[in-house]
Amino acid sequence: MLSIAQLAAQRGNRLLFSALSLTFQAGDCVHLRGENGVGKTTLLKLLAGLTQPLHGEISWGEQKIAKLGDDYYAQLHYLGHKDALKELLSPFDNLQLTAKLAGNPLSEAAVLQALAQVGLARQSDLPVRSLSQGQKKRAALARLVATPRPLWLLDEPFVGLDAKAQEQLGTWISEHCSNGGITIFTSHQIIPETIPNLTELNLSVKK
Ligand SMILES: Nc1ncnc2c1ncn2[C@@H]1O[C@H](COP(=O)(O)OP(=O)(O)OP(=O)(O)O)[C@@H](O)[C@H]1O
Q: Taking every annotated instance into account, which residue ranges of this chain make up the domain ABC transporter (predicted)?
């Protein structure tokens, strides 16, 4: 369970939201909505432990994430606007390196299988800089399928993907939540119908 209590966030000198209290249970699949600049990315970064709140607490289970540190990071996948890929390395090397740095090394077969699942079997050895935007997004998404983690925090994960890949990602999100995972994602796009049980959280009306 992920919970936030009396959370307030400020960027620059602007208060984005305050007194935000929410609980996300196992199986929750949440579409974080709201107008540009309302603070959706900021909230995802706070939940990922990448930035600090002005006030309030975020807890995973019974413990504060600030206290859990690496034990909390090992529970989540965060995919931001930037794909966090090393442009000179291949999708294969990127995925293997990321998994190793996170303390979950993957076998060569597991890396290749994940890349095949995201449709990059033929591009697995090309430098990321030579891939299209959608292929780069797929390379980043390979982390989700390669290493199971209960919490997925995804910022605009559908951007750059073709219709089929959007549907596929929708299916993975849906399966993840059906299996007791939590997914919180932002999207200004139409959500694929492959995510049937979606909760909407509009940050504009929570402010
Ligand atoms: N590093 C920063 N320094 C100062 N202000 C920032 C910084 N990052 C974001 N902001 C401001 O914080 C506000 C919220 O930004 P955020 O990216 O969280 O919005 P968002 O709801 O995700 O928007 P969008 O729908 O456009 O992606 C914006 O007004 C933005 O200008």
A: 2-207
